[in-house]
Structure formats: structure tokens, C-alpha cells
Amino acid sequence: MDRSDSTDTRTAPRAGRLLAVLLTPLFLYQADATIVNVANPSIRADLHASGAELQLIVGGYLLASAALLITGARLGQLRGYRRMFLVGVGTFALASLAAGLAPSPTALIIARVVQGAGGALMLPQVLIGIQLTFEAGAERARAMGLYSAALAGGAVIGQLLGGLLVSADLLDSEWRPIFLVNVPVALLVLIAGRRFLPGDQQPDAARRLDLPGVAILSTGLLLIVLPLTLGREMHWPAWTWICLAISVPLLIAFVAVERRTAASGRAALLNLHVIARPAIAWGLWPYAIAVSTYYALLFTLALYLQRGLGWSPVASGLALVPWVASFGIVGRLVGRVPRRLASLVAPVGCLLLAAAYAAICTSLLAGERPAVLVALLTLGGVGLGASFSAMLQHLTAAATPRYAADISGVFTTSGQVAGTLGVAGFGTAYLALAAHQGATDAFAISTAAFAVAALVAAALAYRATHVTAT
């Protein structure tokens, strides 16, 4: 991107419009990852969907996005982040329309897969656009804080909006508005994006997408995410373990292929030298662990409140509003921390997150107190907001804008996979415990496990922010 474009976009009004364009699809992407969970009973009744079809309606979106996020990031670098952002938003809008009009479970599954693929094209461009447009410092820190808020807010608002739209049953359309609502919003983003996003450089025709790398990595990620997404509901049949076992040699083969591609002078799908830098390699771990506990909390808390305490889906979603609000507020304040203390924000945030989980566990064992639970969720949002925003700023600062696609692709993919792992692992354990010990004890034990994971993340975050970059 031409620097004159970058300088122009840093005027305050234009920067605000640019961020609104970039972050709105991020919010939509996250909302659509959770919104369908609330609508599943309505979809089952209307389309006569089987249990397996419902799983694919939810999981097909996540599968496609997780498998293609790194590819989407590289396409943004090769073909222009503005161009791929608009293509992704357009694909997402058309797939949302198809989902809202789907006449059968199969049609809805296909639409959700295409919707996930559109998300994989547009989502990495958000982070790339921020890195290329906003210089390191206060400007980028503010943008990253808003990025964090949109990411967290979308997940919870998706559940709330899903419950409200399904309950409203607009024009007897039942579940369909949860997808159709995306269409006008995406169209507005397309119009605004064409006007406010800086133009791309002319693509280098000599640089081509690393297709062998795409095939191997996408297959490897698919073999990880597919069994983790479907295995819990299917009670972990043999094929899930076979897929996970096959994914390991595939990922090893991907590393070998990428090294060979880079050695030959061709453009690799992923720059392994950048990702292997200590500041980045260490930084991805605490981020992934903290995010895995967040997605696991979303899953287990909803089950506990709805099945254990009898709350409605809307009330269950409202319980997480303080978490999201504190996450967003703290995320925006992280950039104002003095430079000499900046390296402590991520580990301290993880410690606060661990303290919140431990306090929730203690309060549950002392007796059910929903008001106390909501207050402690606010503390958890503070901890996760601080650690998430600080690690995001650390990772994007550890590499020059030249490697924005590598950071964006790995960051978004690791978050997606970590979230899937968290739900699969902690979710399976919660369901098993709840069947034998009750919902309260199961959730207490789950939050204790979250606390241990957050403590590990704190130690790794300290290591990441104090390691010497090479």
C-alpha cells in the first residue's frame, strides 16, 4: 500500500470510518459463530433436521473458516487486502442470504460452509488493514483495543440477538432473520469499503499462491477441527481419533513443504522464520490458552445457566454482558499503559483471569449466588481484555508490516483452533461431570480447570513479553 494512502487515513475522522468498515464484518463473523446455537431448536422443527445435520449447520461454518484463514491472509497480501476484504464480505452476504432462504438442511449446511469461507477471506484482512494503516504506538493500540472489543462483543451479542430474533418470529419467519440480518449490514460495508479503504498496490503477477501448502495445511486443519467439532456430540467414534492422528504427519509435512518452497525462492504460504521468532512463538501460546478458556466458558456457562438453573437463552446471554463490557473497556485502555509497564499487562491480565475463575469456583461451592457470579464475570472480562489486547499488540509489534499477513493468518487461526479445542475438551468434561455430579459441581470443577489454564497462560505471557526478539 502506498504510504500516502496510509498518511491520509490517519486523520481522525477518516481513521474512525475506516475502523468502522473493518470491524463491522469482524463483529458479524463472531456473532454468526454463536447465533445459530440459540436457533437450533427452531431449525430442527422447521426443516426436520437430524442431530448430525444440526451439528454440521453449526460446525460447517467453523470448519471452513478455520481451514482457510491462513490462506485468506496470504491472498490478502498477494492480491490486496482491500480487494480480498470486499470479496469476503460479498461472499459472506450472499451465503447469509442463501442460509436465510434455505429450503432444506442440506442447503443450509452448504450455505454455512460458504459463509465460513467468506469469513476466512474477510477476517484476516481486518488485522492486516490495521497493521498497514495505523503506525505502531497510540494509533495502533486504539485500533487494536477496538478490534478486541468487536471480537468479544460479537460472540455474546450473537447469542442475545439470536434469542431475540427467534422469539420475535418476524413475519412467521422463525429462525431465518438470524442470517438475513447480515445482508443489509454487509451491503453497507461493501459500499463504505469501496469509498474509505485505501487502494491496493498493483499485485505482483509473478507471485503465486502456494497451492501445495494450501492443500496440505487446509487438510491438516480440517482433520483437527472436524473431529473436535463433531466428536463430542457423537461420543468420540473411532474416525475422530483417526483424523486427529493423521493431522500430525500432515502438519509436519506442511512445515517441510514450506521450508522447501522458501529455499527455492518461491513465496511460501506461511513464513516460518517469522513465526519461529521467540517473541512471536512464545506469544501465541498464552493467547491461545486464554482464548480456549473463554470459548469453553461461553459453552459451559450457557449449559449451567439454562439446564442447571433454568434460565432462558436471552437471560443466559445477558449474564455475559458485564464480561464483554469490561473486556472492551479494558482493551481500549491497554494502549495507555506506560511503556515501562507494558510488558506486565498480559501476565497480570492472565492472573486476574485466573483469580476470577477461582473465585467463581469458590462461590459455587459455597452456594449458588447468580449475582456474585455475574460480578465475578466482570473481573474475568477485565483479565481477558487486558491479556488479549496486550498480546495482540505484542505480536503485531514483533514483526514489520511486511509480515502482516503471516501474523494475521496465524493469530486468527490459532484463536479459532484454540476455541474449538477448549469447547471440545472442557465441554466434554463438563457434560460428563454434570451427568454424575450435577450442573453446579460440574461448572465449579470446570472453572477450577480454567483457573489452572489461565495461570499457565500468565507464566507463558511473562516469558513472551520478556524474551529477546531475534
Residue ranges: pLDDT <50 for 5 or more in a row? Answer: 1-10
Going by helix content, strand content and strand pairing, the class is: mainly alpha
Mean pLDDT: 86
Number of strands: 0
The CATH superfamily of the largest domain is MFS general substrate transporter like domains
Helix and strand run: HHHHHHHHHHHHHHHHHH
Beta strand %: under 5%
Radius of gyration, in angstroms, nearest whole number: 21 Å
Q: How many domains?
A: 3
- What level of helicity do the residues show? over 70%
Count every helix, treating DSSP H or I runs of 4 or more residues as helices. 18
Shape category:
globular
CATH architecture of the largest domain: Up-down Bundle
Biggest beta-sheet profile: none
Return the CATH topology of the largest domain: Growth Hormone, Chain: A
User: What oligomeric state best describes the polypeptide chains here?
Assistant: single chain
Distance between the termini: 26 Å
Q: What is the CATH class name of the largest domain? A: Mainly Alpha
Question: What does this molecule look like?
Answer:
The protein has 470 residues and is mainly α. It folds into three domains: 199 residues, Growth Hormone, Chain: A; 59 residues; 201 residues, MFS general substrate transporter like domains (Growth Hormone, Chain: A). Helix content is 82%, strand content 0%. The longest helix has 36 residues. The chain is globular, with a radius of gyration of 21 Å. The N terminus is likely disordered.
